[in-house]
Amino acid sequence: MKKFLSVLFVALLLAGASFAQCDKHVVYSSEKQEFIGTDGQVEDIKTDALTLEFSQGKIVLNAPGKGDALTGIIKETDCQWKTLYKEGKAVYKLDFQKPQSDETSGGSITIEAKDGVLTILVEIAKMEGRKVKLIVSKYEEK
């Protein structure tokens, strides 16, 4: 029984630590974005400066000088980091809201790190299967 309780305690600690990693206030920067078509192929590549800010309960995608920011309200989080920002992934289910509008669209953001390379995949229901992949150039915890 003691062994079972010890294992349960360690599992709860790891689960809590994993969630805490997804609950951080982080700003990701990208200077390269790939636009992916419904067939999974890259259709276009842009080199705009973008930031994606994760804070308590929301995500804000901002392209300085390109208009209003896009906000996503986080509904659900699945955090599976082995090593934060280096190996693993986090998936956020959210509702995106157009600036200055009540109109929303469901979607998800997946942050994935493989071999130290960090990418963010943005999927919005209104994009009808098309996706945007941001190549992260830097990130900063606030």
Structure description:
With about 140 residues, the chain is mainly beta. It is built from one helix and nine strands, in the order αβββββββββ. It has one helix at about 1-20; strands at about 25-35, 40-45, 50-55, 60, 70-85, 85-95, 105-115, 115-125, 130-140. It has an eight-stranded antiparallel β-barrel. β1 (about 25-35) and β2 (about 40-45) form a beta hairpin. It is globular, with a radius of gyration of 17 Å. The relative contact order is 0.20.
What secondary-structure arrangement, pairings included, does this model have?
Layout: H1 2-22, E1 26-36, E2 42-46, E3 50-55, E4 58-62, E5 70-83, E6 87-97, E7 104-114, E8 117-124, E9 131-141
Antiparallel strand pairs: 1-2, 1-3, 1-9, 3-4, 4-5, 5-6, 6-7, 7-8, 8-9
